[in-house]
Specification:
single chain; about 350 residues; alpha/beta; 6-stranded parallel sheet; 3-stranded antiparallel sheet; 10 helices; globular
């Protein structure tokens, strides 16, 4: 059946169609705008060598004032190409569900890594990078989910690029440089303002193959490369568990990253004093002590004016990964709560 329309009716129908198309387009723009706002509401910054979140001093009026107490959760985005049965998305979901508990206990930053961490067994293939240094979308989606969750809870992220045992996935040093470039561009494009960059985890570790990642000179080059792409991004790299930082690295970075795995609690004040001459915030973002020993290390760090980071490798980093909030280590988390809520 044919329907004949006069020109006035046709114009009205055409106008209605155009209006509907315009409203749909506006709806899409509005949705994108909301997404952009949601992915950048937490801002991490340094002022007078103290950490600030959304311009406010962290932990005001407490022992940890101006510090950034953090938890190492690098395998919250874990995958292993040799274990296709492992449910990476479920693992990430379980971690995200526990974030409010960790925040309640005083955590204000989490460490992640684009190549994860030691899962408790050898041979895992766990990397956000392709051999040429480009980023793998599926892995970056999990990274985005955990960063977004931290952003939603007012927390910062220490995002590492490279991890020993995994840098071999990148075919050469050009790929390593490309990996840094692509990571920084991804951060810029994401809209997140809560990210601190860590070039490599324990860069001089024997598990690295590429010489660019094994020397202070190489780390300084990569720090400068990252800063050339985004001067506003805060960039550092971490050394071994002796609580030390190489002079050239300490001078090049925006904040000094150290590990205390192999550092006795009694040696923490001495390590801190050696690094204070650089006039930069000092952040331990890995210490594998647990229980009372971890509580003592956290206390010694805070009393000496530096941020401390907890790594419960047996629970959070080795399979099967468990993220159970305060139940991960009640003694340590009780102390963390006290340090970040009491004077």
């Amino acid at each position: 059946m044919l329907i004949f329309l006069n020109h006035k009716t046709f114009h009205w129908i055409a106008a209605a169609f155009i209006f509907a198309f315009f409203m749909n387009a506006c709806q899409q723009v509005s949705t994108r705008s909301v997404d952009q706002i949601a992915s950048g509401k937490t801002n991490i910054s340094i002022r007078d060598n103290q950490w600030r979140i959304n311009s406010a001093l962290t932990y005001p009026g407490t022992k940890a004032e101006g510090l950034l107490m953090n938890l190492r959760m690098v395998n919250s985005t874990f995958e292993d190409k040799n274990r296709p049965e492992f449910d990476s998305d479920l693992n990430t979901k379980r971690f995200i569900a526990a974030i409010p508990q960790y925040v309640e206990q005083g955590a204000r930053a989490f460490t992640f890594n684009l190549q994860g961490g030691m899962p408790g067994y050898e041979g895992a293939v766990n990397s956000a990078f392709n051999p040429d240094g480009t980023l793998r979308q599926a892995y970056m989606q999990r990274i985005k989910r955990v960063i977004q969750a931290c952003d939603d809870h007012g927390c910062a992220v220490i995002l590492g690029c490279f991890y020993q045992r995994q840098d071999q996935i990148l075919k050469d040093e050009t790929a390593i440089r490309n990996g840094v470039i692509n990571t920084v561009k991804w951060i810029k494009d994401s809209g997140f303002k809560n990210i601190l960059l860590e070039i490599a985890n324990e860069f001089s570790h024997g598990g690295f193959d590429h010489s660019l990642l094994k020397s202070p000179e190489g780390e300084v080059e990569l720090i400068k490369l990252a800063k050339s792409i985004d001067p506003g991004l805060l960039v550092s790299t971490s050394g071994l568990g002796d609580g030390k930082s190489h002079r050239s690295v300490a001078e090049a970075c925006d904040y000094i990253l150290i590990h205390f795995n192999g550092t006795p609690v009694n040696d923490i004040p001495k390590r801190v004093q050696t690094l204070k001459k650089y006039g930069k915030p000092i952040v331990c973002n890995e210490d594998d002590k647990i229980g009372q020993s971890a509580a003592d290390a956290a206390t010694a760090s805070v009393l000496n004016g530096i941020s401390w980071g907890y790594m419960n490798k047996e629970v959070n980093q080795y399979t099967p990964f468990v993220f159970d909030g305060v139940n991960d280590d009640p003694v340590m988390y009780k102390t963390l709560k006290q340090l970040t809520s009491e004077k």
